[in-house]
Amino acid sequence: MGNQNELIDQLEAALTSIRQAKTSAPPANGLRMPEQHILWIVAAMNNGEPVMPSDIAKRLNVTSAAVTHHLTSLEDRGLIARTSTTDDRRLLLVSLTKEGKTAVEDSKKQMRATMAGLVNFLGEDDSRTLTALVHKISQYVAEGGLHA
Asked: What CATH code would you report for 31-142?
């Protein structure tokens, strides 16, 4: 059991160091990660057609209020537009602006470059091992293994 506790401590320390390094890095395109996620979701849902903020919140597993906060920031930057539906003026739809579509494409390119850098850093064997482990972790999470 002592060996397992040591492994747990090492895993916690490794994950904490990734989190700390990530939070100290400047946000991509000046966007925070939640804003990036929202842009990606709006681009991916309904084949790029406008979506309701509540659908974004469900997809992110957060409250509508949290999404609204980020939508305001994205709208202020000209990356999304919010429009009322014709049936019910109280309902809003979110769509990407031209600038928002460009930001999504740029972030995809940046993500791809980041992954290429990681593969180059790790090498082929370690990259394959990491990929297999990430798939295994994903399975663990899908089966309810993480509760935090």
From this structure: 1.10.10.10
